[in-house]
Amino acid sequence: MLIGNVGKEPEVKYVDAGVCVASVRLATTERAYTLQNGTEVPERTEWHNVILWRKLAEVVEKYVHKGDKLYIEGQIRTRTYDDQNGIRRTVTEIWAESMEMLTPKAQNNS
To answer: Three-class SS of residue 35?
Structure first.
């Protein structure tokens, strides 16, 4: 489960037999805080690659924009590939099973 903000416009494409797939960069932020001993822990932001398929991807294509807040539930998946230079790369992605848009409609660009 993740709650975060969309970092850039979603990338949407159609693959085999017209199946829609969307890729979203989602930022989750842990707020800064101070420990009891006075140590300050700074704010920390993590970036997640979220993959959405079929109907969820179509919703993303129509309604989700940079800056929107999303709630995502899904599975963590890791894959490896060889880049253009032959270097083995590993990518961790969240394959969304459900999504809820949390940005109020008045703020949403749709």
So the answer is: coil
* Percentage of the chain lying above the pLDDT 90 cut: 91
Is 50 within a domain?
yes
Confidence class for position 80, pLDDT limits 50, 70, 90? very high
CA–CA distance from 110 to each of 30, 61, 63, 105 (Å)? 28, 11, 6, 8
The tokens describing 2, both together, are 């993740």
User: Whole-angstrom Cα distance, residue 21 to residue 57?
Assistant: 5
Domain holding 10, by residue range, is: 2-30+44-101
Number of Cβ within 10 Å of residue 20's Cβ equals 18
Instruction: Tell me how many domains the chain contains.
Output: 1
Which residues make Cβ contacts (< 8 Å) with residue 53, sequence separation at least 6? 19, 20, 21, 22, 95, 96
